[in-house]
Every structure is written in C-alpha cells, then in structure tokens.
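Summary for the steering committee. One of the milestones for this cycle was to obtain a three-dimensional model of the protein with adenosine-5'-triphosphate bound, which we needed before selecting residues for the alanine scan. The sequence and ligand used are listed below.
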Amino acid sequence: MLATQGLYFQYQDQPVLRDISLDFAQYPVTGLVGANGCGKSTLFMNLCGLLRPQQGRVVWQGRPLDYSKQGLIALRRQVTTVFQDPDQQLFYTDIDSDIAFSLRNLGVPEPEIARRLAQAIELVDAGAFRQQPIQFLSHGQKKRVAIAGALVMQADYLLLDEPTAGLDPAGRRQMMEIIRRIARQGKRVVISSHDIDLIYEVCDGVHVLRHGAVLASGTPQEVFSQQRMLEQAGLVQPWLVKLHALAGLPLYRSEQELYAHFGRSHQEVS
Ligand SMILES: Nc1ncnc2c1ncn2[C@@H]1O[C@H](COP(=O)(O)OP(=O)(O)OP(=O)(O)O)[C@@H](O)[C@H]1O
Ligand SMILES: [Mg+2]
C-alpha cells in the first residue's frame, strides 16, 4: 500500500505541500488535479522517494518509506513513475536500451526483456520510430518511449505525471486504454493531469489540490459536480458534467455511454 500521512514538503524556504494524507490504494485509478504550481509533480517526486518530506511521511507497505539505497530500489520495483518531462527519464540514445534499462538492472533474462519490450512498443504505438535516436524524437514520441519504459516494469503502482501532455488524439485514446487495462490487472494507477475530461473518464477517485493542500476528494461524480470548489481550485467541469447540468442528460461517465444514449457507436461519431 502506498500512502502519505501529514506530508509536508518545502523547497528551500517555499512551502509546497501541506498536510497531505492520501491513500493511493483506495481506488484502482486515482486522479490528482489542480492548477499549475499546486504541487502535483512535487507530490509524485515525494511518492517515489526522489524528494523527502520535512514533516509527515510516505508510507509504503504499511511502514514509513525506507530511504536507504536498498529501500528505494525495493520501492521502485513496485512503484514506477513517468515524470512530466520525458527528458527527465530518458538516458540512452536508442529506444530499446532505454526501455530495457531498468529490467537489465533487475537481472531480468534477455528473452523476457525482448518480449516485454515488443509488447510495450506496440502498446504505445512506437514501432514506426523505434530505430530513431531518442534526441531526434518529438516531445510526444519521447513521452510514448517514457511510458513504454514504465509499462515494462509491470509494477503494482504506476504514477503518471501528465501522461497525455504532448500526445495527439490517437495517443491520448491509447493512453486511456492503457490505464484501463492496467487497472483491470488489479494494479493501481495514479494520474496527474490538466486533461479534466480524461481524469473524469478514467479515474475511480479524484483529489483536488490547491496551494499544496487537499481541497476536495471523492468519486469523479462527487468532485466534478462541485462547480464553486472547482473554480476556487482554478479548474473547470468536464464536458460530460456540463452537458448533464445544461441539457439535463443523465450524468454519463464516458463518451461511449453518451453515444450509446443516441444509439451511435464511438467509431461512427469520431
Ligand atoms: N526544484 C524546485 N525548486 C524550487 N521550487 C520548485 C522546484 N520545483 C517546483 N518548484 C515550485 O513548487 C511549486 C509546485 O510545483 P510543481 O511542479 O509540483 O507543481 P505542479 O502542480 O506539478 O504544476 P504543473 O501543473 O505546472 O505541472 C511551484 O510553485 C514551483 O515553482
Ligand atoms: Mg507538474
């Protein structure tokens, strides 16, 4: 189980996270939303042990996180993070080596690495640029490589910081599918995103952050029906929630459900 208890973090003298107590095992897919600078990425870096809180703690498997080298290695076998900026985690010049890096570190046999690599490349649709040097890839292509590097780990927790930023509509849809598929395998996914519609559709629980504190928590329906609270947090309602409020349509959870209401399939409409 991955959680925080009364976590407080500051950079130099600037407080960023205040009294954060969240349980990331509570929902299969947890969403973190909030305006720029509210502390989402900083929270992710605390969760994977890159940053250490000054007060409170990260709790991993029922115990305070062990920040020794071994403790962090054990954590990162089961908690994989895709950072907001793909350049932060791509080190090699060729894609295959980069994606396989962590597996080689863990001593996974080469045939197994090749199998997982092929699967991940297909999942993120990176086959077309697999042979290109990483430095020549676009931001969205790099993002796909970084995500593939996380997927091969098959960890219990996948932390995705802005997973669809820089992805085209097809990439975004693939990302939603990947998140759902991982959740169906019984794993936990935590996503931070400004893509409110994505958060609404794929998350089972949502936490709203404002100035580094939790402003609201609950199911997507509960959280996104609170318009005043969302305004305070600098957020807007998902379009399906607006449609519900404006047109009196039922509160659908996904585009597919809405299209089904009109007897149309997703393929017909998009
Ligand atoms: N390395 C750093 N040193 C000092 N301050 C930092 C550092 N990184 C982030 N900050 C500050 O911490 C606050 C939180 O930043 P953070 O990147 O966690 O926000 P965020 O919610 O992820 O924002 P965004 O939506 O833009 O990704 C911001 O005020 C930012 O300026
Ligand atoms: Mg961020």
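Key point for the committee: The first strand starts at residue 2 and ends at 11.
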